Amino acid sequence: MKYELPKLPYSYDALEPSIDAKTMEIHHTKHHQGYIDKLNAVIEKYPGLQDQKLEDLLKNLQAIEQMEESDKTILKNNGGGHLNHSLFWQMMAPAKEVDKNLLVEIEKTFGYLDEFKKTFTQAAVGQFGSGWAWLVRNEAGKLDVYSLPNQDSPYLKGHTPIIGLDVWEHAYYLKYQNRRAEYVENWWKVLKLL
What we know:
Number of helices: 7
Structural class: mainly alpha
Shape: globular
Strand content: 5-15%
CATH architecture of the largest domain: 3-Layer(bab) Sandwich
Domain Manganese/iron superoxide dismutase C-terminal: 100-191
Largest sheet: 3 strands, antiparallel
Helix content: 40-55%
CATH superfamily of the largest domain: Iron/manganese superoxide dismutase, C-terminal domain
CATH class of the largest domain: Alpha Beta
Catalytic activity: 2 superoxide + 2 H(+) = H2O2 + O2
CATH topology of the largest domain: minor pseudopilin epsh fold
Strand order of the largest sheet: 2-1-3
Family: Belongs to the iron/manganese superoxide dismutase family.
Distance between the termini: 34 Å
Domain Manganese/iron superoxide dismutase N-terminal: 2-93
GO cellular component, one term: cytoplasm
Order of helices and strands: HHHHHEEEHH
């Protein structure tokens, strides 16, 4: 299977002023495309893996015996980058589409939506260096919030990502420079699920 850059469900300027059009365009066409190109190059070397779902490959990465360790690292980094970004684009929108079931579950787990937002924001702002903040469903089926470095995907832990926020500088630096907390605060305005 050859992976392709997914089309955005909105224009590059649709998330203004929270996320600027230039950042969206570069992030989508350069960064995400770069992960896909490297992912395709490594998968091409292993025909037996080409028909497997990328999520399953990441969940079982260490069990893939025929793959060299250096190629596992490439798959982890670039497969994670592709999956993370594919989810990221879909969870944002210029208009809210609140997922009421998710909202109820968040309130059951975290007490209040504001408490969840505080916990998630701390994970995002507190991530040292590049990475992501995540709301996931863990192996027990419960909601959990944490951050992961680089392009590590929750699938590597056997978890299912629900909401992810890219806190690599390329996601916000053109508009926010070193003001990650301001970026995170404005990102909540374009998160369509809540």
